[in-house]
Amino acid sequence: MKFRDLRRVQAHPGMTAMIDIIFLLLLFFVLSSTFIVQPGIKINLPRTVSTEQPTRKDLVVIIARDQRIFLNNTQITFESLWGRLIEELKFQRQGTLVIRADRDVPHGFVVRVMDVAKQAGANRIAIATSPVLRKKKR
What we know:
Helix content is 34%, strand content 18%. The chain is an alpha/beta fold. The strands form two sheets. A five-stranded mixed β-sheet has the order 4-3-2-5-6, covered by helices on one side. It has a two-stranded parallel sheet with strand order 1-7.
């Protein structure tokens, strides 16, 4: 019986498969990067179990960790907060003022911002939180 010389078959990945994978990865990263809700100012919100989503365009005051204040993504000083809120509340009298404060900001500073907002005429003030993901009980 004669045995043929069996040469090892080497597998070469097809170029088409690699191009498909690269396009799928590119598509994944492009789509996942568009889901950023509020880019720009990085803050860590405190977590709560209950959440309520605002339904209309509201005023947003962001307080960063280093106590910088942003009104609708524009940096302002604490001293100019009262005047700027009065201007903004003229047009959005029934809206809610949402305070997005980093969880590391001192509580007293957040209360001072809330007090200025009340003096400027904000009737409804909400504090933004991040939802806590709860594990399901079995």
